[in-house]
């Protein structure tokens, strides 16, 4: 873990944009960047992940949030990005520091080479004393290739830079043990296992794409990388430092004491499912014992499409997710190999290679620290007929 004090701050659309006027909330931006300037003077490196481009751009297009389709949102993001960056840049200059925009898509964070390129850019900006503002490139992304929410995007960035804290600023004080509008709802001040509260995390804000569920998923991703997540209401003076100093109510999701390596964290904490395999229970137990990788004879069914070097999810016959790993073959090649066990790989594929689908070194067995993904529906899985 890096010894540099690093914080990732995530700001939601409901804090940045006036919900009625769809204009920047300048007073909030002023409070936020003044606080970040204070943290920077205390030796912290800060990365900001900020929503708001779509919300602010809708005003330019004269489109209401509830009526906005995908094309409207993409065009609104193009209109709103200059508004967001101009607001941040003006206020940041008041406090004596510079900002830079880093736009990413899901592929930039899920494909290893592009992930490392993004990481190098963020580190270079930090080394130059410039605060990166990271956001999804909503002008070009469709539902199929989106990260989906800036909570998990922020957690991915926290993993990337080995941050000690992820601070998620939202419109409530944190996670409650039930719907905060219900009588008797209590703030959960500290937790280690986010899975205990997933059942009470449904719902999203009017302007944002994420709710408390995505914040719990983000917290789990950060925990696995040794990063503590703090979820708090952004409507406060010194919105970040006051939470770090425990001066106001918030929810603290404690980092794992034995964090995963950077490679393991990248491999296991996915933003979207590229594809999956169902393997025999015997093979799944062998994976858990660390004895081997996934062989073609293990496969019962396949969910694709996916390509070579995608990270796929591996389930046993009961639908329990057991591992995630970097595949050596596309879904089409995997099916060909699994259906023709007695045929040499060279004859099937046209090139010489071993038939191991996922190598042991590129596979991580899941444990209680990971939130499992539901197995795809049976009608989405293609069985291996031998």
From TrEMBL:
Keywords: Amino-acid biosynthesis, ATP-binding, Cytoplasm, Kinase, Nucleotide-binding, Proline biosynthesis, Transferase. InterPro entries: AceGlu_kinase-like_sf, Asp/Glu/Uridylate_kinase, G5K_ProB, Glu/AcGlu_kinase, Glu_5kinase, Glu_5kinase/COase_Synthase, Glutamate_5-kinase_CS, PUA. Gene3D superfamilies: Acetylglutamate kinase-like, PUA domain. NCBIfam families: proB (TIGR01027). It is an enzyme of class 2 (transferase). It comes from Hyphomonas chukchiensis. It catalyses: L-glutamate + ATP = L-glutamyl 5-phosphate + ADP. It comes from the Bacteria. Residues 5-233 form the Aspartate/glutamate/uridylate kinase domain. GO terms for molecular function: ATP binding; glutamate 5-kinase activity; RNA binding. Catalyzes the transfer of a phosphate group to glutamate to form L-glutamate 5-phosphate. It is found in: Cytoplasm. One of its GO terms (cellular component) is cytosol. One of its GO terms (biological process) is L-proline biosynthetic process. Residues 275-341 form the PUA domain. Belongs to the glutamate 5-kinase family. Pathway: Amino-acid biosynthesis; L-proline biosynthesis; L-glutamate 5-semialdehyde from L-glutamate: step 1/2. This is Glutamate 5-kinase. Substrate binds at residues 51, 138, 150. Pfam families: AA_kinase (PF00696), PUA (PF01472).
